[in-house]
Amino acid sequence: MNFIEVKNVSFRYSEDSEDFVIKDLNLVIKKGEFVAIIGPNGSGKSTLAKLFNALMVPSRGDVIVKGMNTRDKDKIWDIRKTVGLVFQNPDNQLVASIVEEDVAFGPENLGIPPAEIRQRVENALKAVGMYNYKDFAVHLLSGGQKQRVAIAGLLAMLPECIVLDEPTAMLDPVGRKEVINTVTKLNREKGITVIYITHFMDETLAADRILVMDNGRIVLEDTPINVFKRIELLKGLNLDVPPMVELAYLLNKEGVPVNQNIITIDEMVNEICQLL
Amino acid sequence: MSIVVKNLTFIYNEGSPFETKALDDVSMEIKEGEIVGIIGHTGSGKSTLVQHFNGLLRPTKGNVIIKGMDISDKRINLRELRKKVGFIFQYPEYQIFEETVLKEVSFGLKNIGMDDERGLQERVKEALELVDLDYESFKDKSPFLLSGGEKRRVAIASILAMKPEILIMDEPTAGLDPGGRNFILSKIREIHKKYSMTIVLVSHSMEEVYELTDRVFVMDKGRIVMEGSPKIVFKNQEFLESIGLGVPQVVQLVNRLRGKGIDVGDDVLSIYELAKDIKRLYLRGRKP
Amino acid sequence: MIKNITVGQYIPGDSFIHNLDPRIKIIFTAFFVILLFMVNKLSGYIFIMAFLVLSIYISRIPLKFVFRGLKPIVFIIFITILANALFTPGEVIWSYGIISITKEGLWSALLMGLRLIFLIIGTSLLTFTTSPIMLTDGIEYLLKPFRRIGVPAHEIAMMMTIALRFIPTLFEETEKIMKAQMARGADFESGNFIKRIKNLIPILIPLFINAFRRADELALAMESRCYRGGENRTRMKELKFTAKDISALLIMFAFAVVIILNRFWKW
Predict the structure, then answer these.
(1) Which 3 state secondary structure label does DSSP give A69?
(2) CA trace torsion B11, B12, B18, B19 (10° rounding)
(3) C31: distance to nearest CA of chain A, Å?
(4) Given an 8 Å threshold on Cβ–Cβ distance, is C183 in contact with B144?
(5) pLDDT at residue C101 is higher than 80
């Protein structure tokens, strides 16, 4: 069974408007995958994020999570237990003043017995590397730390999938690294399905698959390197291209035959040394 | 000399149990018309430093002299100072409060004493044009109903309208997507060319600083630890990484190749130039 | 930076007082405040002071925090002392023109001043030793009986939790907005009263708009974490009465008895 299915989904914010933010989208996510979704502002990616956990339901079509339809009002809470959502603003997700109290918020809502909540909170904080901060005041944390606490808050609900909607847009480079490393580790070590929405290309390197969205549709879907190589398309959408991939492309255009599957600096250094 | 900083020390909450030394004996000079970058990890003191340039903060020790005005002087006319020094904060769209774009962009002008309606409208028009917003279609709109990118442009225009001689920008592209970022960066270049403003760019993005600035100041733990042209500063990859900063990938590649004896020019600023340079070497190697 | 000073700052610890059930602490504090206003003799004040000193010692809260809590109200204490000293009728011991200080006045000033100080220290002890969520959980529990008459106990507690969480964040934001507007030439210091209120608009409007946006985003985040009101919610830190709490209850009764006796007896 597919973990998440998006079937012919269209979405608009109001019944009167002709403006569909998502247009006839089809998508399948398998369990354990790390899927990245990139696209310019206004491409519909943030809206899509909210469709995955039933915060919003499609105007047309269906979103099925583990066999449950997000339109089914009885299944909303099960869906939200299964699919957690991390938002862009680190501050506006944290409810309690103290770290461990905020991480406990989710399990408390689920009516989990106190002793088990404590266990889950400790495990969640350890999984994101914030266990030593459990008694800290939330407002004293850095952006990256806050986002990790938000992720821990979801982990404490034992989700199978985490959707992250531009989680690093408001962070500094250190914070961005913390978040992407944490998320990659959770996917690799705990098998959590990850849907990672961003416009920072360098954060999509760990993904199994990248979906490129534009104007409410998926315009490209492939492995990272195959997506990066579509330089003209990406630039046309005002998206970044990893520098080494672009360099390989330009060199080939100039007649220098470098391998076009290069992504990292190491690979480029080796390739150029061999060539010259 | 536009900005002179001499042995500046700044301590937050002096005397309280939360006392922190944010700046420790900082000295620097910024010339008229330069674009300089100030980089450093979060907490290195960058924001604290630049807030002295328009008198938002006063030195605990040392001097800061902006265009001849000494910040520490109690008699300093802050209005005059803020006429000369424009400050664009991080996420400037959060400061928007007026009902129309026209009113919002003219807020600063009114505060520094301009009250001639005609003159105000002229300035607002000019400022909006600088950020590619059409005066007629935007002036009566509510700024709150604009898109995120448009809001930021309005906020920036409200500072530009004051025609500052020195412009300070704190992370001007924070939170923007690549399209938005490229737009702002090209505008900064344009503005610098057109008005020869002195521009101080505080940024986390090494790429931005590398592309735009003439000189870079590197800060760590309240001190300036390195200073020079971007080309020279970014050669010190190991050091920069040790203080929590990165180096643009293109520069890293050039450093590594040169380290292996490959003679790529280190004047390279863009990926296109680097490609051409490598091609040159490749062809040279292929000559019979 | 203002954000370091949280309102009624919680200082984590493991003392007897830290570990008491918050409900007991809240009730105790309420009684303390009431009893404080019953005291009318110096001996009573000395007893209360001794009690407070002992409590501070047991809680292991550093004295510097206790005194810092008094700073904001130093002005009020001063005014109170002054008012009492100057305006209480009785036996005049010093005068200058129409201003006179009476013996009763001095006495009254001293006692009122002490009362205020003890009030602040007593309530601070509550917030120093009780984490925000424990506090709101305690209040929620104590308000539950009033649900029958329509008091939304859980919702009030949740609102308090969120308010406490965002106070430092909002302080920080206010500072940022102020600086941004000052950089645009706004002046918050000069002008008459009306003008100064008007000058606050560039701060208040962004603050409110941002606050609404925060609330919106926070609501989405809470729903994503399956929040659906107070029904069937459990707590990680359950409120349980232990032997410690029973003994604290006994101490409270003893304390009350002493104060009441002190008031109505000669000593």
Answers:
(1) strand
(2) 10
(3) 27
(4) no
(5) no
